Amino acid sequence: MQSAIEIAAAVRSGARTARSVTEEHLATIASREGEIHAFNHVTADAALAQADAVDSKVARGEDPGLLAGVPVALKDNLCTRGVPTTCSSKILDGWLPPYNATVVDRVMAAGGVAVGKTNLDEFAMGSSTENSAFGPTLNPLDPSRVPGGSSGGSAAAVAARFAPLSLGSDTGGSIRQPASFCGVVGVKPTYGVVSRYGLIAFASSLDQIGPFAATVDDAALLLDVISGHDRMDSTSIAAPPTSLLNDGGSVAGLRVGLVTELTDVEGIDPEVRAAVERAASALEAQGAIVERISVPSCIYGLSAYYLIAPAEASSNLARYDGVRYGLRVDGDDVYEMNSATRDAGFGAEVKRRIMLGTYALSAGFYDAYYGQAQRVRTLIIRDFAAAYERFDVLLSPTTPTTAFKFGAKTEDPFSMYLSDICTIASNLAGHPAMSVPFGLGSDAMPIGVQVLAPALGEPVMFRVARAIEAAGGVA
Amino acid sequence: MSITRSDVEHVAMLARLALTPDEVGEFAEQLTAILGHATDISSLDLDGVPPTAHPLPVTNVLREDVIGRSLDRDEVLAAAPSAEEGRFRVPRIMGEA
């Protein structure tokens, strides 16, 4: 199986056709998608048409772009013109967006081939894809286990070789946690580096789009393609002009901080902790300077997140009112129509978060909950700033355990929330972080090591991730 | 602290969710439990710490006030549950006068 970089090189040089690459991946999807359910919608015909367009460009002597002929799976909360976009919710079932998300346009402009829309926890709220209205995605490495979430379909699509690349969104760990569970690379970029125009909003001060890939370099390739300023997103910033592809740089002399609070977090599997320590030793062996570092306010991130994210979600999801798109359940007046539509259209977790967020923002509670959570956010940013005075990057587990079994955490919502405990602080701070597979647990499931960096620290983050990948993770 | 059924009913009204009696009971329990976990931050003394609403130091990003390309009206209305004469159609919004 070829990497995205190899496929693009082969297609650009004419050694392979985009059609043959696309057909090969569609065949893999046909053989195993019935079991895995990574997709809500496979766009086989459109994919072949895009592939043919790439091949025509090559035939005319034009360069189709960095992703020439590379199949890419898209999380089903990214708008695709004329192609169903559901957020795995009944409330958007049947909706056809009238426009593409900016990232979708950028992938296609670079010659990428969109193969389908991947399953997620409804509106990206969850950590296992068990909250999808269309049924869960299975972990391709062990179908009795969850793929993680919310971008579980995108992680599973790469792990099952349905596509070498996919896009997800990460609000509290929704790219990194499923990447860890499925044994692939997953990146949450710096807030603002990737345009969110056309990403259906969950929590706007936290959401970021990012890549999944089988290798660090493939993830760098996709991030290179999708990053950059977009006037359609007022939170978009100018991306650093440097490419994230391998610059051959070493980690010698880099200062790496192992975050004590996240490595010793309550409920951590000792095998996961050991893997992170092995990754740190591997970096040390390549010349990095590794020390333990305390980021004390990290432990408050989870509580702050579960007030801030639902508060923002309760506002963002007010738009599903049965008026402009999606489901409508009739009522005698607008209030009844709105309420009946939303009760029928949203699943349990989405309602729970809308309720939690509405409560946290309501008169009399705003300052005690939402206001306090925003002040904790400041503490976390200050603690990271202090840590990055001494370190170039930080290291932690991506998630406290390997992929859990279906149903293991559905009874107690808070136990599910705990699987994001190591990833949330980066969203609250707006910093980049990525998960790199590093070895297996005794359950034969992959373990992910998280590399965290300061805002716009992607180049150094990718360099460290590459060194961890090269070390291989074998005990 | 404990969230009561009447708290849940009030919040559900604000959030425009027509919850069933079973859902009201479930949410009262679950919201009490989830907010119980938030006591670790509600007890922190954060006087003098400013709130962070947004991680980027960018403000007031405005575009130039010129007419640009926008979505096609008919295409947008085609996605609506009900539309008429170029507008979204909804049930009555006020009671009888």
Instruction: Tell me the span between the first and last alpha carbons of chain B.
Output: 43 Å
Largest interface (CB < 8 Å): A-B, 70 and 52 residues
| Gross geometry of chain B | flat
Strand content of chain B: under 5%
Order of SSEs of chain A:
HHEHEHEHEHEEHEHHEHHHHEHHEEH
* Mean pLDDT over the full residue set of chain B: 90
Tally of DSSP helical segments of chain B = 4
Name the beta content range of chain A. 5-15%
What structural class do you assign from the helix and strand content of chain B?
mainly alpha
Shape of chain A: globular
Strand tally of chain B is: 2
pLDDT below 50 for ≥5 consecutive residues: which ranges of chain A?
none
Radius of gyration of chain A: 21 Å
CATH topology of the domain at 1-43 in chain B: Histone, subunit A
Oligomer: heterodimer
The end-to-end span of chain A amounts to: 26 Å
Work out the number of β strands of chain A: 11
Q: What is the count of structural domains of chain A?
A: 3
